[in-house]
Amino acid sequence: MESSENDVRLSRAILEMKFMKKTKEKVEKEIDDEEGRSMYSNEITDEMRKSGNLVFVSTSIVNCKNLIDGRLSFGGKNPDIEKLMASNYTKLLEEQEQKKEKDVSDADMAKGYSTLVKTIGKKFNKDKKKKKKFAKPSTEENLI
């Protein structure tokens, strides 16, 4: 830290010159790093600094496309694999059944549907009444 305090900083006018572009970027990066360290100094522990960046990258598309990973067997060719497949299949079916649980009971759904039918029925009944109300007089009445 003592060396950073004694470092001479270049003025902005010099850093703005064309040939100082790389030096300017380097200085700005150092300033940003110092600000970041000072902001998060109380949250980042020494263990985090020592461990470095831990990034796990998976190049497989199995998870993205819900593909089956592993071995498959059909027709009794490999009974051990078929037992594993059967147990995995039953687990998958149980999970799907749990997801399919109803949010609305059948009685509530029927009640809601009946009110919907009544509402739409009223809408069409009003239109018929209006049309009858404004019917044109017949031509026979004008001739008499």
Automatic annotation (TrEMBL):
Ranges of Basic residues composition bias in the record: 124-135
Residue spans crossing the bilayer: none
One example of a Gene Ontology biological process annotation: maturation of 5.8S rRNA
Keyword Glycosyltransferase attributed: no
Signal peptide range in chain numbering: none
Region feature (Disordered): 124-144
Swiss-Prot/TrEMBL keywords: Coiled coil
Entry superkingdom: Eukaryota
Coiled-coil stretches noted in the UniProt entry, renumbered to this chain: 10-37
Pfam families the UniProt entry points to: MPP6
PANTHER family given in the database record: M-PHASE PHOSPHOPROTEIN 6 (PTHR13582:SF0)
Name of the protein in question: M-phase phosphoprotein 6
Lineage: Eukaryota, Metazoa, Ecdysozoa, Arthropoda, Hexapoda
